[in-house]
Specification:
Largest sheet: 8 strands, mixed
Strand content: 15-25%
Length: 474
């Protein structure tokens, strides 16, 4: 590596900044945050730097650069638009043995200032070795999205606990103890701000409860696009011992899980269950009671037609800690990806979600309740029963010309959308070769579908260069 990443204590130390402009002010702010005594050397101060001086955050030497001004400095930074001055600063610091940074000139830098992410006492620094500071800032933003906001508070709690328990634990056992604690329910409990419960878990671990406490997370994987995972879901996925996942969870999302985690596929298609639901429920209980952190990963949201309630009920009955992590529902994600609003002031004042098959595999819906021209009807898992569904809706009074969209592999790279109407949907689905998993959206809102992604399959005219394909009834 070009630079050794070292966190340096600068509290009370003299740091000289040569330059009084915007870049110098931005760099100076980092030194100020570290507690350094920042001294600006510049004939004049501009904008933010002038404000910092007026606020007493920096001292100012209103003169041109002289090497003698650097005496006693711990670090030096130059940010001027005069190359002769920058080179003079570099020469002076080299002679004095002071580390220097010449802004935007890595060949004249003994150290570099990374892009910094702060969570209380937790500091994460990202650097590209001066090759692309913008890219470093971009990576920092991604890390900010991934790291929990309470991380700093957890670190403070751990410091308190270490002060309390370390004197009571044999030195060679300490690392093992704290590692096991962080791999237990303690970590997630603390991240959620349940401090008393987290302290109790730590106390139980210290008291000799050697068997770690297992837990289950019912996690919504969203409709398929891995970018639609919630930050919390992604974080939990990367700390799991076991992943129990469904058929509707995309391979891209599975690949985001911790590499060492055990993966158990329990995918279910209609009349083809890898494991019956009762066995899945018991599997979750058994894994958790082995002390494992178990992720039950479901497509969409785990509580919308995902049998999450059944699994959650048994886990609670068996005394297993269970946390639900919501996901973007298939309806919400797919509607967004196709440009179809679920509600619209002119077309639909309500939306209704129903499943296309019931527990017994029979379509037995309250058809009269579903026939409303001012609502959007979203049907999950109904493709195999599309003929029954459309016929019943028409027989119970829905206009046969009501717009209807059938979306295959919603939000994924191979998404396909058939836009048709109620009376022709069965025929058009067959002609287009739409396959499960597919979602049906019925109602006047369908006419808002994004036209730029459509293929008029009847005339074989391509009207998009996007990877998502829409098949539109012409």
């Amino acid at each position: 590596m070009d630079y050794l990443p070292i966190f340096m204590r600068l509290k009370g130390e003299k740091v000289c900044v040569i330059g009084g402009g915007t870049i110098a002010a931005r760099k100076s702010d980092l030194f100020i945050q570290s507690g350094a005594k920042v001294e600006i050397i510049s004939p004049e101060l501009k904008g933010e730097m002038a404000r910092m001086h007026q606020a007493g955050l920096v001292s100012w030497q209103p003169c041109v650069f002289e090497p003698s001004l650097l005496v006693g400095a711990k670090l030096v930074l130059a940010a001027t638009d005069d190359q002769a001055v920058n080179e003079a600063v570099y020469a002076a610091t080299t002679e004095l043995g002071i580390a220097v940074n010449i802004a935007d000139q890595t060949e004249l830098c003994d150290y570099i200032l990374p892009s910094i992410l702060q969570r209380g006492p937790i500091t994460v620094a990202v650097s590209t070795g001066g090759r692309s500071p913008t890219f470093a800032r971009h990576l920092r933003v991604q890390l900010e999205q991934a790291l929990p906001t309470r991380l700093g508070e957890v670190a403070l709690l751990l410091r308190q606990l270490r002060q309390q328990y370390n004197p009571l634990i044999e030195e060679e056992e300490r690392k093992h103890f704290w590692q096991n604690l962080l791999n237990s329910a303690f970590y997630q409990t603390a991240l959620e701000g349940r401090w008393d419960e987290a302290r109790q878990i730590c106390a139980q671990a210290f008291a000799g409860h050697a068997t770690p406490t297992g837990e289950v997370f019912l996690v919504g994987a969203g409709p398929g696009d891995p970018d639609l995972l919630t930050i919390k879901a992604l974080r939990i996925l990367q700390t799991a011992d076991v992943i129990v996942y469904d058929r509707l969870v995309s391979e891209d999302i599975i690949n985001l899980t911790r590499r060492e985690a055990e993966r158990i596929y329990v995918g279910k298609a209609m009349s083809n269950h890898t494991l019956p639901q009762e066995q899945i429920n018991q599997l979750l209980v058994d894994l958790a009671k082995q002390g494992k952190k178990v992720i039950r990963l479901k497509g969409g949201d785990p509580t919308i037609f995902g049998r999450g309630a059944e699994e959650q009920a048994l886990l609670r009955e068996q005394g297993v800690a269970c946390t639900v992590v919501p996901g973007i529902s298939s309806a919400s994600g797919i509607a967004a990806s196709t440009g179809i609003p679920l509600t619209h002031r002119e077309f639909a004042q309500s939306v209704k979600f129903v499943t296309g098959h019931t527990r017994q595999g029979i379509v037995d819906l309250d058809w009269n309740c579903l026939v409303d021209p001012n609502q959007t009807l979203v049907i999950y898992m109904g493709l195999s029963n599309i003929e029954i569904i459309t016929r019943q809706l028409i027989e119970h009074g829905m206009n046969p010309n009501t717009p209807m969209a059938v979306i295959e592999n919603g939000t994924r790279a191979n998404q396909r959308v058939l836009v048709t109407d109620l009376q022709q949907a069965t025929k058009q689905v067959a002609l287009a070769g739409i396959q499960a998993p597919a979602l049906m959206i019925i109602g006047r809102v369908v006419q808002c579908v994004e036209p730029s992604v459509c293929i008029d399959w009847a005339n074989n005219v391509m009207r998009t260069d996007a990877s998502q394909q829409a098949v539109r009834y012409g």
